[in-house]
Design brief:
Blueprint (H helix, E strand, L loop, with lengths): L18 E7 L3 E8 L5 E8 L11 E2 L1 H21 L7 E8 L5 E4 L9 E2 L7 H9 L12 H4 L8 H11 L1 H9 L2 E4 L1 H9 L2 H4 L3 E3 H4 L14 H7 L8 E3 L2 E6 L9 E7 H8 L8 E5 L3 E8 L10 E6 L8 E8 L4 H8 L8 H8 L8 E3 L17 E3 L7 H27 L5 E5 L6 H11 L2 E4 L5 H14 L16 E3 L5 H18 L9 H9 L1
Parallel strand pairs: 1-5, 5-12, 9-10, 13-19, 19-20
Antiparallel strand pairs: 1-2, 2-3, 4-7, 6-8, 11-12, 13-14, 14-16, 15-16, 17-18, 20-21
Helix pairs in contact: 1-6, 4-5, 10-15, 12-13, 13-14
Bound molecules: adenosine-5'-diphosphate and SN-glycerol-3-phosphate.
Amino acid sequence: MDSPTTETTPPPPTLSGPFVGAIDEGTTSARFIIFRAGTDEIVCFHQIEVESIFQKEGWCEQDPMAIVNTVNECIAGACKKLVAVGGKVEEIVTIGITNQRESTVVWDRNSGQPLVNAIIWLDNRTTSTVEELLETIPNNARNINYLRPLCGLPLSPYFSGVKLRWLRDNVPVVSQAMEKGTAMFGTIDTWLMYNLTGGKDCGVHKTDVTNASRTMLMNIETLQWDANLLKFFGLPKTILPEICSSSEFYGSIAQGVLQGIGITSVLGDQQAALVGQQCLAKGQAKATYGTGCFLLYNTGPSIVHSTHGLLTTVGYQLGRKAVPFYALEGSVSIAGAAFNWLRDNMNLIQNSGQIETMASTVDNSLDVYFVPAFNGLYAPYWNQDARGVICGLSEETTSEHIVRATLEAVCFQVRDILDSMHKDCKIPLAKLMVDGGMTVNNLFLQLQSDLVGIQVLRAKIAETTALGAAMAAYKAVENRYQMEAPLSKSGPREAIKPSISATDRNLRYQKWKMAIDRSLNWETSTLPQGEREAFDGA
Ligand SMILES: Nc1ncnc2c1ncn2[C@@H]1O[C@H](COP(=O)(O)OP(=O)(O)O)[C@@H](O)[C@H]1O
Ligand SMILES: O=P(O)(O)OC[C@H](O)CO
């Protein structure tokens, strides 16, 4: 008789914690990433695209409930993967939130339901609101920098206060709720926090200093809502969340797989990337290239007011009693988004993997310059009437030249910002830390280094934004954690150095400036009298 065989099942894999989770709710996608605590090691993650709704030209909205549902799906998906690789969800010690900034949600205090779709940061329906607000500035000054001493920002459709004012003026359900005291406002961090911690039943209504610094309603010195700013925008204080530091206990998750786990950090995504890149000392800077591109320069505890078109913003405040660190920011609204446009509107590419291949088949852009000012130009121009232009087309121009010119457009916009930073801070940057979706593209990073004449250092991991939120969250629960300590054991960052001459670089930059001139004020430019009559009569 055969002896019975004993079937041995392999023991399940084990992976010990502690772990830290980070929600990164970006403009194009949401993700939940689980890190090994205190390191940049990603254990697993789950990512889902979020749909934008374009109802009218220049408008961009998202469904607030879809944002919450997507984040919950990402959390569930990543936790499932954690278990699959042998980890335990109970070993997630805390989580952090990082988010697309300025995007504005208004909801009802009683039902917890949104009153309107979220107005996304790059929506420019509020151009006329800015015009109306400019009219109210004393002495007919019409100065976009009027509020800068208070909030560090110029008047622009970009910021939440302007979007809220538009909602008050144009959506009766919002203005009525504001009058009755039943409206609640939040940027995406606040909306997520409220829902994750229990919604209408017990959800906390809080934001952090970095997100609040993008509303135009927070005083950049006191870090509190400012009565004069609220009066200027005609908004009631009752709608506003409590402002907290970027690293402290906010509340606990009310239900789902992470029920009971605390949320201990909140940072706007660009500030989170500053932390994730460990730009934690004055004089360090990073650029994140995603939908838009955002360059932040750490100015330490001092507030530097830009006179060259940059924003003054809170970089981070890592604890209730911690000293806040500030940053100068150069914001570019269209970076990777220009490639989405080449794909969806122009059919020039099918996917982002093709960008580098196509652009590499030509030696240069054949003197083509593309200013993708689809919704105006942000820093340093702040010209809401600028529109996109492609200059220098010839019979020889091919799709490849246009794809390459699109990469160069992002690089030139970063040069615009670095020139402003140099003027504001006097010290030129020696190197630039880079991260974000576009930085997988090697040719792009070489062009960036060439066109600015600076060494570019690629981040070790692509998810520096989520990492920054995870670091700030862990700091709130683990006293011994040193954020400045080396995160990665995998050697130094990859450095990309300039390979063209200064003369070549400057000539190309002059051409870029000529293209910028053609793009500025396009929307409000009038035809000369004779031509206008001919046009009207046609
Ligand atoms: N290889 C590439 N070359 C250039 N751009 C790219 C490449 N891969 C992705 N992108 C761009 O990067 C953006 C996505 O980056 P990501 O950091 O995920 O954005 P976000 O945080 O804004 O959601 C998209 O706009 C996409 O067009
Ligand atoms: O979605 P991203 O990464 O392009 O970031 C959006 C910014 O926070 C807008 O200010």
